[in-house]
């Protein structure tokens, strides 16, 4: 899309009778592949679940979705979410795709041995992970499959000078406007907040730009 946009500014790039066709259609021209929903087992959840977690595997679902990648092409990714939120998650990510909001990757945190920091450092959008809130004995809403972190490297958590992930320092500047960042009032933020989800970017301390939750 970037090359197409640039050509729109250059008269020498204007289409002519001998112009070659686009190598790839734009996302708006490609309807997203339908989402699929599957049950998950403790084995499939791997290191993201263990006995004593606040939800059982039977309460979770794997939702496989189409998202726009940073290469401007459609990709398939998956989120593990609470069964009660499946329809909302499908609707939200369908809207993000049609808004052409890019997501770098979308994988279970099991691919990172359940390590939230590694998942964030890799800019991986994820949902379920049975973990506690750092510095607290309370379960994170991720442990219930009721929270999603979107492009976490680009949208870090900031708390009195401390931030996560560790490699996100450049993105503490929230005046940055490149694709994939989230700002107050953005259409991508409203995809969630209009549907009743809370955005951590509106919090005072910590401010968690990546985080959306639905209780």
What does the secondary structure layout of this molecule look like, with pairings?
Layout: H1 2-7, E1 36-39, H2 42-45, E2 60-68, E3 74-82, H3 86-98, E4 105-106, H4 116-121, E5 124-125, E6 147-149, E7 157-159, E8 162-164, H5 187-193, E9 198-199, E10 207-208, E11 211-213
Parallel strand pairs: 4-5
Antiparallel strand pairs: 1-2, 2-3, 6-11, 7-8, 7-10, 9-11
Q: Report the principal-axis shape.
A: globular
Helix-strand category: alpha+beta
Helix and strand sequence: HEHEEHEHEEEEHEEE
Counting structural domains, the number is 1
Fraction in beta strands: 15-25%
The percentage helix is 10-25%
**Order of neighbouring strands in the sheet with most strands:** 1-2-3
Provide a compact summary of the structure.
This protein has 215 residues and is α+β, with helices and mostly antiparallel strands. Helices cover 17% and strands 20% of the residues.
Explain what you see.
The chain has 215 residues and is an alpha+beta fold. It has one domain (24-213). It has 5 helices and 11 strands; from the N terminus they run αβαββαβαββββαβββ. It has helices at 2-7, 42-45, 86-98, 116-121, 187-193; strands at 36-39, 60-68, 74-82, 105-106, 124-125, 147-149, 157-159, 162-164, 198-199, 207-208, 211-213. It has a 3-stranded antiparallel beta sheet with strand order 1-2-3, covered by helices on one side. Strands 6-11-9 form a 3-stranded antiparallel beta sheet, with helices on one face. β7 (157-159) and β8 (162-164) form a beta hairpin. The longest helix is centred in the middle third of the chain and has 13 residues, at 86-98. The radius of gyration is 18 Å and the shape is globular. The model is unreliable at 1-23 (pLDDT under 50).
